[in-house]
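Lab channel / #folding
Pinned by the channel admin:
"Please post every new chain as: sequence first, then the structure tokens as a reply. Keep commentary short and put observations after the output so the thread stays searchable."

First post following the new format, from NK:
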Amino acid sequence: MNTIILMWNPSISSVNMHDYEQSMKNCIEEYFNWSVWDWEHAQACDRFYLVRVGEGNTGIVMKGVLSSEPFEAEDWSGKGRQVFYMDMEPDIIINPDKAPIITTAELQRDLPGFVWDSGHSGQILEPKLADMLEDKWHKYIDENEAMFEDPEKAVRPRRGKAFLQIITHPVSPRRDRR
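Reply from TO:
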């Protein structure tokens, strides 16, 4: 199993912070999808972390499992590039403006060897760093369990029963396949 690091910059993404916050409130049976740079090596059941980059509180805002094989679709940015996406099933979603997160500064300090604050979305993390990140994540969740008491801070979508409102780049040919 790979660990894929997805990057999200709300100031340039088709998903802004308001959309993200709304998705935390509206649990319906839909899926997220996101662009994946290393799509040739990614596969369904790979683990992912979504890292907010750019301005504001930057760091890990979501963790889960990729639930589809990569599929090509229209470039979310409108630049006409070849872009591949994968569906996502989030386990945990955190509002970085209302709850503590593992920051990009912490990631740079504790897990050097990967650029945590910029770069392509959907890069595969080397196995040693992936294990270190997983350990750091479990410790973080244990220390911040109380944030799940407030759904505006963090949510745990129920797998198989309800997923979050679709967060997708503008074109997703797979929306209606479920």
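NK: Residues 160-178 have pLDDT under 50 and may be disordered.
TO: also worth noting, The chain is about 20% helix and 25% strand.
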